[in-house]
Task: structure prediction
Amino acid sequence: MTFHIVTIFPEFFAGPFEHGVIRRARQTGRLEIQLHDLRNWTYDRHRTVDDRPFGGGEGMLLKPEPIFQAVESILPERVPGQKVVLLSAQGQRFDQATARRYAELETLLLICGRYEGVDERVAAHLADEEVSVGDFVLSGGELPAAVIVDAVARLLPGVLGNEDSSRNESFSGGEELLLDCPQYTRPAEFRGWKVPEVLLGGNHEEIRRWRRAASREKTERLRPDLTGSSSAKS
Ligand code: 9D3
Result:
């Protein structure tokens, strides 16, 4: 799968894409990430990417021309296996189902918003989707882009050692949506806090039941929105 990231800060991504799962996926050719500096598609002396909002208001917006030029030159023909996503605070929430949908694509182009936002014609007439990673205010779409690459890349065939290990986790779906159960490693007692006795024995049926119950308890306590017992919306 190929990601294209259009950004005014291509250097921002040096760190996040050079470690662990992402690094290995790139090395083995299962994942390609191409960074594109939005200023490459500006033609004035100051390489201007932003301008003031019509009607007044605080701050600056990313102007449409460089973004349209960038996307149209990176993806000259838009085919079904390609998707263009605008990252913005106003977008639809990115979740695990979105990650699974994106992992089926050949090509995903991410446009990183900045400043106070992006000219609305990008969302209306260029992007296929407008996506946010959560209801909090960030300074731009670069961290969200890195989040999306990470979440999608680990779903690609062959990226994780075990082809199935990405399926069996929190948020992967399944008949019941539960958080992972609490897990423990050595020592069996740390500062007086003991690992639950059942995990130290070898009764695998009992362990399975304990884990299921512990998952339910933790989900109810930390994420009642997932169980339907709260009116809270995820
Ligand atoms: C006037 C209100 N705004 C500033 C406080 C709106 C606003 C503009 C630009 C809020 C955030 C941003 C920059 N954020 C993103 O581009 C962004 C984002 C986010 O802020 N939160 C969650 N996901 C995303 S994806 C892109």
